[in-house]
Amino acid sequence: MQFTPKRTRAGVSLASGLCLAAGFGAGAIMAPSEALADWEPERPIEFVIQTSPGGGSDRYARMWIGIIEQYDLSPVPITPVNMPGGAGAVALTYLFAQDGDPHYITPTLNSLVTTPLQHQLPVMYPSEDLTPIVKMMMDPFQLWTNREFFETWEEFHERCQEERLDTLGTGARQEDEIQLELLWRAADCEPFRYVPAAGGGDVAAGVAGGHQHINVNQPAEAMPHYPETMIPLVNFAQERFEAFADYPTHWELGIGVDKEVPGIDATYAELLDLETGLHQMRGIIGAPNLSDEALEWWENLWRQVWETDEWQQFMRDNAMTPVFMGPAEYREWMIPFEDFHMQVMQDVFEWELRPDIMTREERRAEN
Amino acid sequence: MESLDLLMTGFSALMEPTRLGFLMFGVILGLLVGVLPGVGGTTGVAILLPMTVFLEPISALVMLAGIYWGAMYGGVITSILFAVPGNPWSVAVMFDGRPMAVQGKAQLAMSVAFTVSFVGAIVASVLFTFFALPFAQLALRFGPPEMFAVLMIAFGTFVGLGGAPAKALIMIAAGFLLSTVGLDVVTGQPRLTFGSIQMMQGFHFVPITIGLFGIGEVLNNAAERYKVQIEEMTKAAKLGLHDVTEALRVLLKHWWLALTSALLGFATGILPGAGATPASFMAYGIAQKTSRHPEKFGKGVPEGVMAPEAANNAAGTGSILPMMVLGIPGSPTAAILMAGVFMWGFVPGPRLFVEQTEFVWSFVASLYLANIAAVVICLVATPLLALMLRTPYAIIAPIIVVMCIVGAYAIQNSMLDVWLVLIFGVIGFILRRLDYPLAPLVVALVLGAPTETALRQSLIMSDGSMWIFLERPVSTPIAIVAILLFALPLIQIVWRRLRPRQDTGSADG
Q1: B276 is in which domain, residue-wise?
Q2: Interface membership of B182 toward A (CB under 8 Å)
Q3: Where are the domains of chain A?
Q4: Nearest residue, CB atoms, B332 vs list A53, A202, A314
């Protein structure tokens, strides 16, 4: 069982592009068979998790591992290895060092994109420096509030123009803060007072306890408090979510719809949106330069996980948007996602990025 | 009583053999992982989580809970026997547990620790059973300013704890300094990492503590050729129930201390982000402050074992409460359990209590059963555990070192942590020789990061005004107590000056 790591990205894209041409809809009908793959893992897989046990992506990783074991989808065990620290910096650096070895994968969350833009890691743009494997779903953002403060967006919007409101999110200069920074600019609010918190639990507790007015959160985190204590004021998506049908989208409310983001060819509404802008992406990314054969095996495995009743049910229960993307599609999707993060953080928020930051094109010219 | 009826529902749900089997399996597994330094209940629960995707929810829940309850007991063993803290919250129990072992009272120390752990857990379980909702609501009132005030109390209880004041101060400063390494929570920028990516993960306090105490102790014993301990410890391993009855006697004598420590632990445990470790330190500090013979603390008094153990088991129990009742995970273990609850198709929170009574109350019932099982197993095993001390030190020492290193690596799969163990082992040895107290460093290191975070979060909320701590209904009384605690030594000094004839020699104790 040998595989030769391919150094040319064109080769990878082309092959997986062909795979994709077979269609991901067709994949559902096609009987998945591991025997077709030209590559199989030879030793246990290291599933490198960027958070501590119990952190956001850790939960998904362990659930997927449970499904894989139950349906016996992998010939080798998949071992979770937690490498928290540095908001993903340690884990991504470790993954980067496993050049060409498909036995190392990591679940993605948005710090995959934000951390390498701010800290001088060997990875700068994960879509190029690592190998995207699959995207398993999109976890939407909602603007949540405690009902003792506001019942509707209009009430909130009135107050936010008069004074600085309090909010909190996971970590500093990460996805929650980006979404909130975009929001007050889009809605012409006074800048929010942002308190960085340690984890999703603290974020929910801050608003549920009445210490902060609002947060942006995924439905799963806020669900325990809904609708008694907390309600979503806005869903950041094109269409209302089934589970929260009474609450409007930011398109309906016209938040940032006609407002261009300076320096970027997009409106605030587009950047806030689930599909064209921000959401927590839950997927899988591997070490750099993986072979087509290995990618094919991985895509096949994850597609089977994605199709299980357990995963479908879990996504439904938690108001997640089901989406499956293979390696090439995921990579294509990630490129603009990275670019707009870079531009927004650097040009709109004027945050300090890594000292050697450069655009994708500058980087390519240099090599 | 409605709660009582519901609790009975829980017990009857657990009487099913498979569920009971899963619970007992969890407890035993928890005891085992708790013994390994660094590997606590959190790791044990996380490892088994994937297995539970397809289990029947109640079996899955009580198994994971059993691991957690069991691990609360396991940590104390290596702390007392070898000065290697098995869990972060077993550090405080070491301050007096280890000296007791050195004096040949290892069995007594462990028996006291196990029985008092049981008391702590049961007190917390009773509070959980009858007052879950009001306590959870109270916990929600605690934001960053309140947390800061609580942490200040924790520090206040440690003012003037052992050692020369100047040396203690140096150690506190060193602890704070070490706790600042890594990514700054508020700005997201790296601090004191010297450009190293590995250092961005910060200095975890467990490897440092394991190094300072565990490896430091091994080196120290090697230097002294282990001459003192070996004779006295051999006396320790007498089999029999004598130490259990003695432990019960100690417990009855200091029942008030056990009860207050348990209440304190429970109250601290339910606060999001606080948990068992600060609770154990606080209880130890308060026990010493209120004791009639504070100078004996640190030299092997049973009260020094009782207070932190009662507090940490109560806190561990309490920290699950906000997760169950409100859906807010207050500790890493609670977060994993909550992930499980979602995976099994439930939503934690108030509705769970109403809609899934069997699920919730079998969890509550598992508290009682698991703790009874754990204390019985532990007490029976105590003489066997103490026998380990009879093993020649030349054999035990390398095992301790290997366990320390493996445990440190397991926390976050990082070689940096292994180096920390070794480097701080040497530092711990030197500090011990120079009579620097290690406890203040560990307290500052453990509580430094959450204190800094709470302070800076509070100041963001108040646009920089320190008055925020005295302007909020919940934080104000706590902050005043904290200020008084800090002022207490000053008041005592002034008091002594005013009455010069009454000379107390306890200041250097």
Answers
A1: 2-508
A2: yes
A3: 9-138+280-366, 142-272
A4: A53
Using a CB–CB cutoff of 8 Å, tell me whether A118 touches chain B.
Answer: yes
Query: Are the folds of A9-138+280-366 and A142-272 the same?
Result: yes
Does CATH place domain A142-272 in 3.40.1080.10?
Answer: no
Top pLDDT among B493 and A231 is at A231
Q: Do A58 and B46 touch (CB under 8 A)?
A: yes
Q: Which chain A residue shows the shortest CA-CA distance from B274?
A: A202
> B311 and B261 in contact (C-beta within 8 Å)?
yes
Q: How far apart are CA A330 and CA A288, in angstroms?
A: 15
Rounded CA-CA distance A352/A267 in Å is 23
Question: Of B201, B328, B461, which is closest to A166 when you measure between CB atoms?
Answer: B461
Q: Is residue B237 predicted with pLDDT exceeding 60? A: no
Q: Is the confidence at residue A35, as pLDDT, over 60?
A: no
Beta bridge partners of B492: none
Look at A195 and B144 and tell me if their CB atoms are within 8 Å: yes
The second-level CATH assignment, the architecture, of A9-138+280-366 is 3-Layer(aba) Sandwich (3.40)
Q: What is the residue-averaged pLDDT of chain B?
A: 87
For B231-241, b where at least 16 C-beta lie within 10 A, e where not — what string? eebeebbeeee
Measured CA to CA, the distance from residue B507 to residue B405 in angstroms comes to 37
Contact by Cβ (8 Å): B200, A89: yes
- A66 contacts in chain B (CB < 8 Å): 49-54, 343
The first and second tokens of residue A208, run together, are: 């549920």
Q: What is the pLDDT of residues B53-105, one digit of tens each?
A: 889 999 999 999 999 988 888 888 888 888 888 777 888 898 899 889 888 88
pLDDT of amino acid B346 = 87
> Between chains, do A80 and B463 touch, taking CB under 8 Å as contact?
no
* pLDDT tens digits, one per residue of A276-300: 888 888 999 999 999 999 999 999 9
Give the C-alpha separation, B134 to B334, whole Å: 19
Residue (of B69, B96, B64) closest to B80 by Cα position = B96
pLDDT at B239: 53
Q: How many domains does chain B have?
A: 1
